[in-house]
Specification:
The chain is mainly alpha-helical. The protein has one domain (19-106). It has helices at residues 19-26, 28-31, 35-55, 66-78, 87-106. Keywords: DNA-binding.
């Protein structure tokens, strides 16, 4: 199966294409979403993965844990040197990253994701 025109994809900092990671964007759950949503998820996931690589000792997506998510939260929302984004922006970003990790867990690529689950 090739990459369909208009499907978002991510390239690693080493300019590598991760077939498993990019399988998320070709999954039925993603393909039925609006194009803008797909690209939003790609952008938000890329930002988190870039943070893992640049700020968490070149950590890959398979190795992310809750501590990484919390460090990302501090940097994105509270750190004076970070972007200090609004709560609504943070919630949207986390939703995209969490969707990826839920897919990765269901697909057997990771045992658990870095986003903590909160009982509602």
């Amino acid at each position: 199966m090739g990459l369909e025109v208009g499907t978002p994809f991510l390239i690693s900092p080493l300019f590598e294409y991760d077939v498993v990671l990019n399988g998320f964007f070709q999954s039925p759950g993603m393909r039925m979403r609006a194009v803008n949503t797909q690209f939003g998820y790609a952008r938000d996931l890329a930002a988190f993965l870039t943070f893992l690589w640049a700020s968490r000792r070149r950590k890959g997506w398979r190795d992310a844990v809750e501590e990484d998510h919390l460090a990302y939260l501090v940097w994105r929302r509270r750190d004076d040197d970070g972007p200090r984004i609004a709560g609504a922006t943070w919630n949207r970003e986390v939703a995209g990253v969490d969707a990826f990790y839920q897919w990765a867990v269901r697909s057997g690529h990771v045992p658990t994701g870095p986003i903590p689950k909160v009982a509602r």
